[in-house]
């Protein structure tokens, strides 16, 4: 109680003095007023009051300040403060500051500079300078004519951080075990690896997989190897060597192994910049979803029963049809094709977009036909309305040329149209010359709540072959027939890809005739949202046409959300399927005792013309302090096999890895599955385990901060070695990392628990360091030559030259992060007679609170 009252008295005295000084602040600026300091007990306190006499709030020097210009945050900057002839301390806007922030002087009268090399920005009409010392903030307001105009979100390439040398390995291991009544048990195991190294600006990455199915030999496959880096030239570019994809701006995209040199829009500000498909489907049970592109497995996940949406296709290419397989718990498989191509972007006026690619064509389907090719595409923004683009491709007995125009139609949206001519020599030696015409349209009717995401149409003549079609035609020619492969809808071994594979032979190669795709979303205000997706491909052989379309409606109402949809799909060699569904979700946070668990109930009904009726009901919640443990229970009924099932599942997101478990019991089968995923980072400081690191990870070093959590990073803490890894950040944009200071406790302190302005390049590993002070907290009363130490004196660690405290009234100083028997220096000036030193005694070990001591300060010993 005594110490509490004493601290309260000190705070009260300091507050009174602060208020008194604050009231005189405006007068000190209005005219020079010398304050009578005779009332002070200690004459040395006149040093502390001199700053008030002259309006000082900090000494001249270099300080870290947050800079903003015209209310746009620029970032942390080192600002030099100087003392003027009027004894004011003001920021110095030197030539370096002017150049870095691209400030312009439009006439000689504005360009006023003093003897210290500082420009007077107040010479610019309407300029304002606001310095907030307490918040370390500097705000400038300048006329636009005095600034080089930068796009919103601009980050100078000088701030791009290539990161540290490092080795990265991401892993995802999955295992499933199936027991069907009356049949043999079976299993499948898989391991996906994505790893490589960073050396300066170079990035090497490899994607590999290991699969093991019942009754099959284990298989190891390396799907891609790539070395890449960015080139920060006048036009931002990227160099890729190895396995990659060509763009879809002019020609259809395809896999290749070779070299690619292209413009890189990622390095541009967000306001100057790309499309990844959103996959929507339905599951009858706890199901696995596999997505393949060009024969490669690019995505695998588990989904709950009902409607699902996949938005995070990490490995998806700019184009290339996606084969989506929904593998139900009982082994049934449903598949559909998601066509995927993006509208050629309108290029901004006087900007260019290009790509040069050369190498070997790679289909990804274990085919041994890998011809060499070269491809070039180019687009240039003539003005706000027209972007012409062109391209050419040359391969083995194949060449094609294309030209087109993209138009900005104002209120009518944007349209691109192009014509492609192609010559191909087929596997049977026939020469084929054909043309293809493409129209792509995009429009957002914001006033009506309508968004046409993608509307495209392509017509191809019967003798037209795209480059991919031409290569596939030759690869599929087998002994006078064309070989087509596909996977059957249902087998007893649902995850055994080879046993599901079926073959079909035909004397005809199926050429595409028409392709159409559209995605429309209509906002209905308080009445919900209506959406429609449609993709259709017609072949010259009509019986093999394929299509996939879905129409749906969603509505949110307080704690309820509900929706309905109808989906129709047909693949090239598989039967039609029609699904109708209803879903209802209820948030259960109205119950006070359950509110902290984020409990929700999801219920759905689906009718399929193949599977009949299916009912599902799921209860899920999040647990633990950081909500990083998810658990759910699901009950369902399926009409086709008259089965009832109960499924339990949980997932945990931890500092070192993520894990999940699931178990399904049915009167006809049982299924158990487990998975773990995480990442390994090797750097100069050792090896760190963490979550998967796919995009620009940030390595945090905070020695002494073990157990401290990271803001906005579920389950992530500083480990026992003093490190943590944030799995991803935004490339070429400013990122922020903050430690949760409420986890620090009494004997740890961090001067700067927040680090801003972290700008990684693509796939860089950025290392940041927090200076953590560990030690005791002390309330010391300091005396020097029978007097109190001057108010506002700094207490300095002579070894690190960092401040550990500040002297208040009556010689009181609160010190943090200090050690027993540590020698410290009190400074109230730069001269040797304006400082003294003292040594702390043996301090008590305590989790909370602080030691109170009286101590004498002595003259600094000269060495």
Automatic annotation (TrEMBL):
Pfam families: PapC_C, PapC_N, Usher. It is found in: Cell outer membrane. It is a multi-pass membrane protein. One of its GO terms (biological process) is pilus assembly. Residues 35-174 form the PapC N-terminal domain. Residues 793-839 form the PapC-like C-terminal domain. One of its GO terms (molecular function) is fimbrial usher porin activity. Keywords: Cell outer membrane, Fimbrium biogenesis, Membrane, Signal, Transmembrane, Transmembrane beta strand, Transport. Transmembrane segments: none annotated. Residues 1-30 form the signal peptide. GO terms for cellular component: cell outer membrane. Belongs to the fimbrial export usher family. This is Fimbria/pilus outer membrane usher protein. It comes from Acinetobacter rudis. The lineage of its organism: Bacteria, Pseudomonadati, Pseudomonadota, Gammaproteobacteria, Moraxellales.
């Amino acid at each position: 109680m005594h110490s509490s009252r004493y601290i309260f008295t000190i705070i009260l005295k300091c507050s009174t003095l602060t208020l008194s000084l604050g009231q005189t602040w405006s007068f000190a600026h209005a005219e020079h007023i010398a304050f009578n300091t005779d009332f002070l007990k200690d004459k040395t306190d006149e040093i502390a009051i001199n700053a008030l006499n002259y309006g000082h709030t900090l000494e001249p020097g270099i300080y870290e300040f947050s800079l903003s210009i015209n209310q746009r945050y620029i970032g942390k900057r080192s600002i030099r403060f100087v003392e003027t002839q009027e004894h004011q301390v003001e920021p110095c806007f030197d030539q370096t500051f002017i150049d870095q922030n691209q400030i312009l002087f439009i006439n000689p009268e504005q360009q006023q500079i003093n003897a210290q090399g500082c420009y007077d920005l107040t010479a610019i009409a309407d300029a304002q300078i606001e310095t907030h010392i307490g918040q370390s903030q500097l705000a400038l307001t300048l006329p636009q004519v005095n600034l080089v105009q930068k796009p919103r979100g601009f980050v100078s390439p000088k701030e791009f951080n290539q990161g540290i040398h490092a080795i990265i390995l991401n892993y995802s291991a999955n295992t499933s075990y199936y027991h069907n009544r009356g049949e043999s048990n079976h299993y499948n195991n898989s391991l996906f690896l994505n790893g490589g190294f960073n050396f300066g600006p170079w990035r090497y990455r490899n994607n590999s997989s290991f699969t093991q199915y019942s009754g099959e030999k284990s298989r190891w496959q390396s799907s891609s190897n790539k070395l890449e880096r960015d080139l920060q030239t006048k036009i931002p570019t990227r160099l890729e060597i190895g396995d990659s994809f060509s763009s879809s701006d002019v020609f259809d995209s395809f896999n290749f192994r070779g070299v690619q040199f292209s413009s890189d829009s990622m390095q541009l500000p967000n306001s100057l910049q790309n499309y990844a498909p959103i996959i929507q489907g339905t599951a009858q049970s706890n199901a696995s979803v596999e997505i393949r592109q060009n024969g490669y497995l690019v995505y695998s996940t588990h989904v709950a029963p009902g409607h699902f949406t996949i938005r995070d296709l990490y490995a998806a290419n700019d184009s290339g049809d996606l084969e989506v397989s929904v593998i139900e718990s009982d082994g049934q498989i449903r598949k559909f094709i998601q066509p995927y191509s993006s509208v050629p972007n309108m290029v901004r006026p006087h900007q260019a977009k290009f790509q040069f690619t050369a190498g070997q064509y790679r289909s990804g389907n274990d085919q041994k036909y890998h011809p060499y090719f070269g491809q070039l595409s180019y687009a240039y923004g003539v003005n706000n309305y027209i972007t012409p683009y062109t391209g050419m491709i040359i391969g083995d007995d194949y060449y094609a040329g294309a030209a087109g125009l993209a138009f900005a139609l104002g209120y009518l949206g944007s349209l691109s149209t192009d014509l492609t001519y192609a010559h191909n020599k087929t596997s049977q030696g026939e020469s084929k010359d054909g043309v293809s015409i493409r129209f792509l349209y995009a429009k957002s009717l914001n006033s009506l709540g309508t968004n046409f995401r993608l509307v495209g149409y392509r017509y191809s003549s019967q003798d037209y072959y795209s480059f991919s079609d031409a290569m596939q035609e030759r690869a599929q020619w087998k002994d006078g027939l064309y070989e087509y492969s596909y996977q059957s809808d249902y087998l007893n071994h649902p995850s055994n890809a080879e046993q599901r594979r079926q073959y079909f032979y035909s004397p005809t190669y199926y050429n595409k005739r028409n392709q159409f795709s559209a995605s429309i979303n209509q906002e209905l205000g308080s009445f919900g949202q209506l959406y429609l997706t449609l993709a259709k491909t017609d072949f010259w052989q009509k019986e093999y046409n394929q299509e996939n379309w879905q129409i749906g409606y969603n509505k949110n109402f307080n704690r309820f959300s509900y929706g309905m949809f109808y989906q129709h799909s047909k693949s090239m060699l598989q039967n039609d399927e029609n699904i109708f569904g209803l879903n209802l979700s209820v948030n259960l946070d109205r119950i006070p005792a359950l509110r902290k668990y984020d409990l929700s109930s999801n219920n759905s009904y689906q009718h399929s013309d193949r599977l009949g009726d299916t009912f599902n009901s799921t209860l899920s919640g999040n647990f633990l302090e950081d909500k990083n443990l998810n658990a759910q229970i699901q009950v369902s009924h399926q009409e086709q096999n008259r089965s009832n099932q109960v499924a339990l599942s949980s997932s945990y997101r931890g500092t070192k890895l993520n894990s999940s478990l699931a178990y399904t019991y049915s009167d006809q089968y049982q299924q158990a599955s487990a998975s773990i995923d995480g990442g390994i980072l090797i750097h100069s400081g050792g090896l760190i385990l963490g979550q998967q690191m796919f995009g620009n990870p940030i390595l945090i070093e905070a020695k002494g901060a073990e157990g401290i959590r990271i803001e906005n990073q579920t389950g992530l803490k500083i480990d026992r070695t003093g490190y943590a890894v944030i799995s991803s950040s935004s490339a070429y944009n400013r990122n922020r990392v903050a430690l949760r200071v409420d986890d620090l406790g009494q004997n740890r302190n961090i001067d700067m628990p927040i680090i801003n302005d972290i700008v990684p390049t693509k796939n860089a590993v950025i290392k940041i360091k927090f200076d953590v002070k560990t030690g005791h907290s002390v309330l010391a009363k300091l005396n020097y030559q029978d007097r109190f130490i001057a108010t506002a004196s700094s207490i300095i660690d002579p070894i690190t030259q960092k401040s550990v405290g500040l002297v208040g009234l009556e010689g009181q100083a609160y010190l943090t992060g200090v050690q027993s028997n540590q020698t410290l220096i009190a400074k109230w000036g730069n001269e040797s007679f304006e400082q003294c030193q003292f040594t702390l005694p043996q301090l008590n070990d305590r989790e909370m609170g602080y030691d109170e001591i009286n101590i004498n300060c002595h003259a600094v010993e000269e060495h």
